Amino acid sequence: MKDIFNISKLIIKKKLKVLSDDEKSRLKSFRTEYPFSKSIDYGKIVQKISDYSLINKEAAWKAILEKSRNKENIPSVIPLNRSWYKYAAAASLILLVAVSYLFLNKNPEVKNPIVVNAPIEIGTNKAMLTLEDGTKIALVKGTNYKTSDVSSNGEHIVYDSKGHANEKIGSNFLTIPRGGQFFIQLADGTKVWLNSESQIKYPVAFVDGQVRKVELVYGEAYFEVSPSTAHKGSKFEVFTKKQTVEVIGTQFNIKAYDDEDHIYTTLVEGKVAVTTPDKKQFLIPKEQSDFDPETSSLTVSKVDVYSAVAWKEGFFSFRTMPLKDIMKVLSRWYNVDVTFANKKLENVKFNGVLRKDQDIKEILTTIQTTKSINAYEVKNGKIIIK
Question: In 3D, which of 240, 103, 257, 252 has the Cα closest to residue 176?
Fold first, then answer.
């Protein structure tokens, strides 16, 4: 193969839909010369590359852009309507052709058989809406719910953005069960993505000029906040256990599960102020606050933003994460309990980026092939790590 980089770049440009007619011909010629490439599952190979931590996706994408600008006419500005880490994922295609023979028609060796006696469903969009009067409405794909102020197609829910006077405004709860996720657009235009096993309380309308307050009762949520300039200077605040996040910028993630001791706030874009009983701390992009409600301690550190918010884009990103914490994440998404027959395995660490639309068996097999675990069993809706 004469020029691995250029061929890989053509594949990337095809994914971006910016391939010229001449480039299409070159890619077609390559596939004719190397017939095996037609049967390559590119997505699977990218996944395996990620699983085995062979590439820094963000750095690779930047390198590709730089070389592309010097060599060919590829757009130097990424379209704003696409998330940067989708391009980062595309960047890992740089290694596709070089490693194709390694993965093609080869399966990882698994020493111990996997026992699965009951299927485990992949998570999906679903939620329970609780109205001010206590009425509960199940929101699931294929069902519609609509009133004068709100509408839902079962996959997301959107509140009417019309202004309200100072009359009493009620609040709703949106609860996401294990095995679920959901998107909500609040009445002020703020967008919120909710992860599995989460609950948010919010007013059905906001009054311009007054503080916009919502509560993340528990769980994890990603916020893209409508700016205060569009609401007569109204601040936006998110409450969790003993913590308040005042929004100065726009995009951030809060992780505050009941079964975890700490609350993590990760800033993606803009600026926020995290306030606890003892301290107020401002965050800048790529910073994460770590708050312990029991001791009221608050620390801030630089983090890999992609790993913190990958769940929103349909991925699990594990960076040197202990298996017990990984299994906690998986148990929420697949609505399954996990036990460790071998307690020593709880603290074994794993690196990898995995898709949320994968069967649980595929994910466990991937972890097993890294020799992180010896074997596992799925029995009566429970996962047993051996």
Answer: 257
203 CB-near residues (< 8 Å, 6+ apart): 169, 170, 171, 187, 212, 213, 214
Please indicate, yes or no, whether the overall pTM of this predicted structure exceeds 0.85.
no
Tokens, residue 319: 């960076």
In the chain, what is the greatest distance between 2 CA atoms, to the nearest angstrom? Answer: 72
The predicted structure's pLDDT at residue 283:
95
Helix axes 42-51, 96-103, angle to 10 degrees: 90
37 CB contacts (<8 Å, ≥6 apart)? 30, 31, 97, 100
What the block records as the tokens of 106 is 């080869």
Which residues partner with 267 through β-bridges?
252
Q: What is the mean pLDDT of each run of 10 residues along the chain (386 residues)?
A: 55 66 79 60 51 44 47 38 42 43 41 58 95 95 90 93 68 97 95 97 91 96 92 92 90 95 94 94 95 94 90 87 93 94 88 85 81 75 85
pLDDT of 141 reads: 87
Question: In sequence order, what are the beta bridge partners of 127?
Answer: 139
The span from the CA of 178 to the CA of 76, in Å, is 41
3-state secondary structure labels for all residues of the chain: CCCHHHHHHHHHHHHCCCCCHHHHHHHHHHHHHCHHHHHCCHHHHHHHHHHCCCCCHHHHHHHHHHHHHHHCCCCCCCCCCCCHHHHHHHHHHHHHHHHHHHHCCCCCCCCCCCEECCCCCCCEEEEEEECCCCCEEEEECCCCEECCCEEECCCEEEECCCCCCCCCCCEEEEEECCCEEEEEECCCCCEEEECCCEEEEEECCCCCCCCEEEEEEEEEEEEECCCHHHHCCCCEEEEECCEEEEECCCEEEEEECCCCCCEEEEEEECCEEEECCCCEEEECCCEEEEEECCCCEEEEEECCHHHHHHHHHCEEEEEEEEHHHHHHHHHHHHCCEEEECCHHHHHCEEEEEEECCCCHHHHHHHHHHCCCCCCEEEECCEEEEC
